[in-house]
Amino acid sequence: MSAVAIEPMPSVPFTAEAEPNDESPFVVELDQFSGPLDLLLTLIREEQVEITDIPIARICEQFLARIHTLGLGQAADYLEMAARLLRIKVQMLLPRHGDDDAWDDPRAELVRRLLEYQQVREVVDVLEHRGEERRRRFARGYLVAEPVAPPASPLSLSLPELLAAVDRVLRLLREPDVHDIVPRALDVEGAIATIRAVLALRASARWRDVVALDAEPWEVLSALLGLLELARRGELRLRQPRPFADVEISRDAASEAA
């Protein structure tokens, strides 16, 4: 068997999803090859040989050199394929006995798997090509997702959890604003004197004539109580033409006559 010159290949980074000592299977993802069959098929295409008549010795050496270059010493799938190629290579080197028609080609199983993988790979390439054409032809649409209300669920809360939640809420609340209210006595007698003084000058008056615009609340209340007290005594009459209208104050004619 003649020696075959092997050209060094550039190293290709690969990622391992699990450590070798981990119980999960060791998974290798390469940018160029998706598995040992893909690597083997690539080598066959590069060598431009027929799949049904694989030069197993040359392909085996190429395969071993490639997995060594790519650092696939811990990839079980690639090592299993390398062992399979070495076994086929040994079987091919053994002397043949009897008729050649009765000899079983040890490459038959590998050729069958390669043909099946080639068919699947061609289908995948066609689908990827059509998908790429569709992405170039049609723009991507964007549909705004309608908000979905979360399903109502019964409240499941224990008493300690409820008390803890109440305590957190109370801690967040601000201190209530406290206002100091200073009591102030009403001056009804003073208001009555003011009303009488106004009615002494005119026969009728209005609410604003006995209450100033900037009057304090206690002054307004004192004037109101003074008007009611004088009306009760019959010294004046109160009249409001319509709701929210100014109150009209007039001296009682009957009281003046008496």
List strands and helices in order, with pairings.
Layout: E1 15-16, E2 28-29, H1 36-47, H2 56-69, H3 76-93, H4 108-137, H5 159-172, H6 188-201, E3 204-206, H7 207-210, H8 217-233, E4 236-239, E5 248-251, H9 253-257
Helix pairs in contact: 1-4, 2-3, 6-8
Radius of gyration using CA atoms only = 53 Å
Outline type = rod-shaped
Binned, the helix content reads 40-55%
What is the CA-CA span between the terminal residues? 152 Å
Summed up, the helix count is 9
Main β-sheet description: 3 strands, antiparallel
Strand order of the largest sheet: 3-5-4
Alpha-beta content class = mainly alpha
Mean model confidence by pLDDT: 79
Count of extended strands: 5
Question: Can you walk me through this structure?
Answer:
With 258 residues, this protein is mainly alpha-helical. The chain is built from nine helices and five strands, in the order E-E-H-H-H-H-H-H-E-H-H-E-E-H. The chain has helices spanning 36-47, 56-69, 76-93, 108-137, 159-172, 188-201, 207-210, 217-233, 253-257, and strands at residues 15-16, 28-29, 204-206, 236-239, 248-251. It has a three-stranded antiparallel β-sheet. Helix 1 crosses helix 4 (108-137) and helix 6 crosses helix 8. The radius of gyration is 53 Å and the shape is rod-shaped.
